[in-house]
Amino acid sequence: MRLLVVEDDLAIQEFLKRALVEAGYQVDVAADGRTAEKLATEGIHDGLIIDLGLPDIDGLDLIARTRAQGNSAPVLILSARRSVDERVRGLEQGGDDYLTKPFALSELLARLRNLLRRASPGQHESTRLRIADLELDLVRREAKRGANVLQLTPQEFALLEYLCRNTGRVVTRTMILDHVWKMRIDPATNVVDVHIYRLRSKVDRDAPKALIHTIRGVGYVLKDS
Questions:
Q1: pTM here?
Q2: Is the distance from CB of 196 to CB of 147 less than 8 angstroms?
Q3: How far is CA 29 from CA 4, 9, 15, 16, 32, in A?
Q4: Of the candidates 16, 13, 78, which has an alpha carbon nearest to the alpha carbon of residue 50?
Q5: Which of 51, 64, 94, 103 matches a 20 to 30 Å C-alpha distance to 111?
């Protein structure tokens, strides 16, 4: 899932981005309302985390603008404004949940998971991916091959999720770098190959059939055949 974090305090912004990436999310960031509004109008985010005290426009105005433009992604408000009136106002003007600063990361992640679940009620397929006997729980960030729970790092899980979402389709190293690492670095780097090697040793080891395949000179594909 892809999130937009709108926070002008760069220390908090970097902390949130790092924590959310480690939890398996793709994360875009913005330090002001105008940049955030431009990103939000792309309609590619599953959820938004918005600080109210932005340098150019009030966070509540930003929420109102994104809602007016048709963005219905759940919004978690993150703010130092602690009064009941402020919290009520935030929820009434388009926020779906409200968390005051300072906050506990575990609570933020739990609230975020709940918001994302509620945003797609009844859509079981949006929280689980299954290919053959491989199953990914996107909420718990857990993967199983048959009855075996796979011990994956956050980056390995993100890579496996990307392969699963493109089942049967060959993805290149550059595509993987762009979508999983969200950075454009030298395609000649071996970071993708190393992670694929480690992932394959966990997913396909002792399994009756390999799911992750190398297409020499092109990239990789996950398929049940």
A1: 0.55
A2: no
A3: 6, 11, 11, 9, 9
A4: 78
A5: 64
